[in-house]
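Q: what does this look like with manganese (II) ion bound?
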Amino acid sequence: MAGSGSLALRTLPAQSWVRGSSPAVLSRLRDAAVVRPGFLSAAEEDTLSRELEPDLRRRRYEYDHWDAAIHGFRETEKTRWSEASRTILRRVQEAAFGPGQALLPGVHVLDLEPRGYIKPHVDSVKFCGATIAGLSLLSPSVMRLVHTQDPAEWLELLLEPGSLYILRGSARYDFSHEILRDEDSFFGERRIPRGRRISVICRAPPEMGPGELAQPPTAC
Ligand code: OGA
Ligand code: MN
């Protein structure tokens, strides 16, 4: 690449869909918290949401538990997919997971209603390994990551419909993640109004020591 081109790239501000508390955090997590806007074509988004709708419609949105991480949601774990969706999920696997790296067989499908949100949490190591990759459908949202030991360190990810996010390593283990509720849904100064959002989440299986019993891959 021409010298001037790479210089321009290097001096550009951080990607416009990731914000952070400091340039140091942004640079440290550059490969650990990744957003790929437009990962899905409009046709692919449509394929997924049409296929998921009948499964989801059969369930009711849940609110109840005061201590639950997720509010205003319904979810399912999907193992059988159309050929068109399998092609999309293979692309997610190639983009987010190493070659030959296993995934949990059930893909987690989470439907948040417009008022729904996800409180800060770290996915349980009992149910989930080092990598989490999520597709967002229907509504934009903001995912916030906060360092569990130092809340002054944070990232915000702007998740537009059709985007893929990847959390791995430090972003997955050392930071909590949350999906902001509509009232708090800002990417910096920019208001991101929340509608119904569906996420399709692929996870690496838990990394378990010898002798530990495998757990069913539910509710990370
Ligand atoms: C979860 C979670 C994020 C998303 O279910 O543990 O963090 O993108 N979901 O829906
Ligand atoms: Mn999570």
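The longest helix spans residues 42-57. Residues 110, 118, 123, 134, 177, 179, 199, 201, 220 surround N-oxalylglycine (ligand 1) (CB under 6 Å).
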